[in-house]
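[step 3/7] inverse_fold.run input=structure_tokens len=366
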């Protein structure tokens, strides 16, 4: 005699069918990652869903028997919704896609005939980022683009090019074992469970793993604890005690193993830096220098190193939310009532400036 209540993301619209669903409550919203080509950044933000999504959500209630859908918005709002969702190719960072196209020998991507051609601005932004990562040569007179040796090595990894660049830099810096863990975490959902009833418990549990260097190094501490629990075959108990998602940690383990196998295949230097996390943070700058922020006292916030047009705050979930580092790099930006940097690592801004100095001619194009 219980009622099953399920909270789901938009994955439940088409990918998952849960038996017994009779009622759907549709908020009319969707959380989606969008690439702002003019700013060269990815932003996770909440937007209105499309009519097609609303129809799919309502359909979840009637899969096995008649059901009801309650929409938390007026009919007028439904009439104003866009018919279908914006195609992914029009709203995402094309950096990974372009790298793969160049890898298979398509040197003139603008000549491709696509159903929904991406904006020229998005193509330019992705190509420019690949140049900043030393992955491609500048276009020749016929607008052909060719991979560099670095680009070929980046394309070997099934992760975004900036993260692959972190791995290559970590191999040179002697901290690849740690970088593999961090990149695996950055390729999944958050490992921490936060609900209304366990928020305090989760916060206290998270503090047990906090690293002064930031969230990415905190992930290293979490993984050490997880590995120890795996060894003792007490993962379920350890995850429950520390408010961790067992499924996500299992995914991290698998991704890390896959990436490590690729590193071995490419005879990369699989060393650990131990407690010398400076090497690791420098390696992370090599791939994420475009995500570097510096503190601005006048606005009491942070600005991207290559632009002062965005005011950024540290996300409340960060272990550094209570501090004020001079500079940091981040994994992603989240827009709610303001712009937040999520998953950050403290860096020396001079490391970033040293990296971008030879690329100033490209940064001027931003």
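[step 3/7] decode complete -> sequence:
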């Amino acid at each position: 005699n219980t009622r099953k209540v399920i909270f789901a993301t938009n994955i439940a619209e088409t990918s998952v069918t849960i038996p017994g669903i009779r009622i759907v409550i549709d908020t009319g919203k969707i959380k989606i990652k969008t690439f702002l080509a003019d700013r060269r950044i990815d932003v996770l933000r909440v937007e209105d869903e499309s009519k097609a999504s609303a129809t799919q959500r309502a359909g979840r209630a009637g899969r096995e028997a008649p059901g009801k859908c309650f929409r938390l918005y007026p009919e007028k709002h439904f009439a104003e919704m866009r018919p279908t969702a914006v195609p992914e190719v029009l709203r995402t960072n094309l950096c990974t896609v372009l790298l793969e196209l160049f890898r298979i020998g398509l040197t003139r991507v603008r000549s491709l005939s696509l159903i929904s051609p991406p904006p020229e601005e998005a193509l330019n932004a992705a190509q420019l980022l690949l140049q900043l990562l030393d992955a491609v040569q500048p276009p020749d007179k016929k607008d052909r683009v060719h991979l560099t040796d670095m680009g070929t090595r980046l394309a070997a990894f099934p992760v975004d090019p900036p993260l692959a660049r972190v791995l290559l830099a970590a191999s040179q810096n002697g901290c690849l074992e740690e970088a593999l863990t961090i990149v695996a975490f950055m390729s999944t959902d958050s490992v921490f469970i936060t609900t209304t009833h366990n928020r305090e418990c989760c916060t206290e549990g998270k503090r047990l793993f906090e690293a002064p260097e930031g969230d990415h190094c905190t992930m290293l501490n979490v993984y050490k604890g997880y590995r120890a629990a795996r060894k003792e075959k007490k993962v379920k108990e350890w995850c429950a005690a520390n408010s961790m998602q067992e499924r996500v940690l299992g995914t991290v383990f698998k991704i890390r193993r896959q990436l490590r196998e690729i590193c071995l295949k490419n005879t990369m230097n699989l060393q650990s830096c131990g407690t010398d996390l400076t090497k690791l943070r420098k390696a992370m700058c090599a791939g994420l220098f475009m995500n570097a922020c510096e503190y601005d006292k006048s606005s009491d916030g942070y600005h991207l190193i290559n632009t002062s047009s965005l005011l950024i705050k540290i996300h409340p979930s960060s272990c550094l939310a209570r501090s004020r580092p001079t500079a940091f790099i981040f994994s992603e930006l989240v827009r709610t009532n303001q712009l937040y940097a999520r998953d950050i690592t403290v860096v020396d801004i001079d490391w970033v400036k040293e990296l971008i100095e030879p690329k100033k001619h490209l940064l001027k194009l931003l």
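[step 4/7] annotate
Residues 283-363 form one domain.
The mean pLDDT is 90.
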